[in-house]
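Proteins fold reproducibly. Next comes a concrete instance:

***
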Amino acid sequence: MKISIIIAAYNIDQYIERCLSSVLAQTYRDIDVVVVDDASTDNTGEIISSFAARDSRITVVAHKENKGLHLTRNTGVAAATGDYALFLDGDDELAPDMCERLVDKIAAESIDMLHYGITVISENGVTAEDGTNFADYVNAPERVFYGDDVLRSIYDEALGQKVDWRMTQRLYRISLLKRAFSVMTNQRLERAEDSYESFVVASLANSSVPCKDIRGYIYHYGVGVTGASAITAKQYRQFCEQFSACYRATREYIVNRGETALMRSCFTDMRHKANELLSNDWHMRVPENEKAEAAKAMADVLGGAVAACEIWRIVRDQAWRIATGSSSQKDMGDLQSWRAIAEDIDILQSANGEALRLGKTKTRALELIADLNRSSELNQYEDQPIRVFVTTHKDVAKPKSRILQPVQVGLKPGSYRFPWAFHDDEGENISSKNPMYCELTTQYWAWKNIDAEYYGFCHYRRYFDFSETEHRENAYGEIMDDYIDDAAAKRYGLDDVTIAKAVEGYDVITTRYGDLTQIIDKRGTPAGVWKAAPLLIDEDLRRCYRILCSMHPDYKQDADAFLNGNKSCFCNMFIMRKQIFQDYCAWLFPILEEFEQQTDFSTYSKEAVRTPGHLSERLLNIYLMHHKRIGANWKTKELQCVHFTNPEPEYALKPLWDDEPGMPKPVPVVFAADDNYVPQLATTVYSAMKNASKNRFYDVVVLQRNIAWDKQERMRDFFYKQFPNMTLRFTNVDRMMNGYNLSTNNKHISVETYYRFLIQGILPFYDKVLYLDSDIIVPGDIAELYDTDLGDNMLAAVRDIDFLGNLNIKDGKRMQYAQETLKMRDPYDYFQAGVLVINTKALRGSYTIQQWLDYATNSDFIYNDQDVLNAHCEGKVLYLPWEWDVVHDLENRVGRIFSQAPGRYFDEYMASRNNPKIIHYAGYVKPWTDPDCDFASVYWRYARETPFYERLLKRVARAMQANIVIDVERKSRGAKPQRAVGEHSSLRKIIDPIAPLGSPQREIAKAIGRAVRGRR
């Protein structure tokens, strides 16, 4: 097997001898060396000729004029005669056994491309850290790829673009290489030619096999085009033009080859990555005084949105670096300077996709900058005589107080550092022990670094109640509340005036001492409470007791009295005068340090590792008891402790990006769901996005109260990989719904139905919003629906064919209800509220959210939220074509009920069933309760492509449990057990296409069916 080594050479006389010497030193002898001299003007040609004269395996091809690297490689490929070939840059070299190892690998299997590793040597200003990071990237492990996955693995952003596109890091089958270069452009390409050439080769390859352990290619990082030397704005413009030429060549290849969705998306992602590499040169190599000119050059060549996006990315990353590590005045100055350059770029006439990318990047950058600007909040804390430190590891709400001062704990290298908080790893600290010492790392930090008259400590979810009002406590001696807001601050005195009044004049303040015979499961004593804790170790308490008695014998009496008594204060919350606090810390931390040294934590659970934190709560009690016994005469006070269950800040949704010329207008689409309805929600959103116009951007907002974070992340991951033209935002409406005791009069309608009343307040920056129920399928284009011209109407909707049919039933009850309860002038205008185009601007001008929710408390309504909207929007409704809300046929309601509606409406409804743009599974029969229901096959077509499909199958099985009869007589006769999924079961329609008989998926389906029926 012959290996061709193709070397491009241009003005590298100081490196080419090293390169060729390494090639001729190969232990594998059957090599074909093609050296193409691209019209060098130095001694490169002479050196090449001298080597060729000594070894016949070297073929020299000389260009009469300089053509650039791409065409030089093309010449080399045409001259290569081996079975496989690799590219070697003339300023790099090969280890002696490189070819031998590659041949051994290639001989074992027939492949198109072998992707090997490299050895990186940093030179010419490239730092060792940058060299290591680059080596880690290009040498990252990967799997074997076949077919389209070869191209996708390199370029697809959804896969992380973790595979490099370096042409010099692969061994190629020569027939593949010659075919690829034969269809490439004959135009000069430079700087980004690897991205283009690799794209063409990968699109034609059938296989790519990694061998990253072979690192015989020695890459001199910093030599040639990868240098770190400064460049002018004029040079940078040339770089931009060279990248643009590579983009045009790639686009031309795609068109000529026959454009596919994969190639189109990979090309888009290729440009994104290449633009990032290009802008890194702007960041690192263009002098500050030329950056604005260079940015304009990038905008001129690649478009304003591209240039602005890349500079905003650099601003974003700079803000992140400042927030996660130390920073200087220069760092902040650079950030502001680059921001000004980004904001000055004209983005008009930008492509829609690039503008979307800009919007996301800029928004995140501005969020980080806004957070950094909060660092000024720390200035208000320094001169406070009373300083109560609030320990937190996450972003939380905090009362408006200069006395209550946040301290971030649990920091690690690279952690995001809240600019508005102190950090327990600054100054003298034990921050690294936070997993063990918990909030004590804050106490230690304050002890060593802060000067105050009073030192106090509480937690991000537990505060002292500084008010003079007695509040009700739970069985654990805590006041339970939900949110930290202005009302709570007023209720519990969490303001500076009240806190100072409560603290001044006292020496020590703690939480209340609770009677352990009455609270905490009535364990009786502190020792009993410890023993009952399942994750704490009894010997640890005894060991700490022995250490205390050894180090401070005079405390033994107090330790015995406390551990065997029935009183204790809790939560490690206290406020002390300076002298007492300093003495307490000097006493406490040596005891814990000795305990730490005597204890082997290697097999402890995470909770058990926190034992020093638990012990300190007991030691605080002992310390205070001791000083009371010996007559310290401290003036003490006990305060109630309030526990906030939802300490997270209230996050108000913001516009996706500034409303400025050139930026796309999002289509806001709102859903409401709970944790149990996530599979249905995912199916509905998926159907909507799959059929939505790709030329629009969608801001999908889910109103919820309890959807688990992992499910939110799973949905984001699923949708973002497929739909780059959308965002998916979950917002918790619990605060807005707090205080309203809402219920529904139909068991198949959940309380989430009321969330649509909140839209006008949650999305104040949208004047029009599309609302969709989560039990629908959307075969139509939601952008078309959103573009409905509402005029002065409050909303657009489809008439409710079910309600209209009921109006004409002989008993007249529904007509009476519509006229007398809903007070509708024309009951035949009653609409279905599962699909709404809402004029939020008009709604805000007519009704408040409180009014809507007050209306919804009317227990006389049948369809609470829907009836409210019909009663209060009548005369201000635009009626949509029936295709936009085709209600399915539930238990022959088409024949029994719908057919009684006015004839023209019934005819229009029936016609809409032939081409529905939205199918609505309204009522108590759904596809996941009856897979034979109307339009169920359409539902499952989308559902089976979502990540929650199996959960829906399980619900089908549960719903059908009542229809499954277990034949006890058959079992008693020894007959075969009934099938988990019967021959005629409706489940077969859903399961058979994706879980064929005999497949592992089939076994899972069987297990679900049997589990539901109580069988194994």
User: Anything to note?
Assistant: Residues 8 and 761 are 64 Å apart (CA to CA). Confidence is low (pLDDT under 50) at residues 965-970, 976-984, 1011-1016. The two ends are 58 Å apart (CA to CA). DSSP finds 41 helices and 32 strands in the chain.
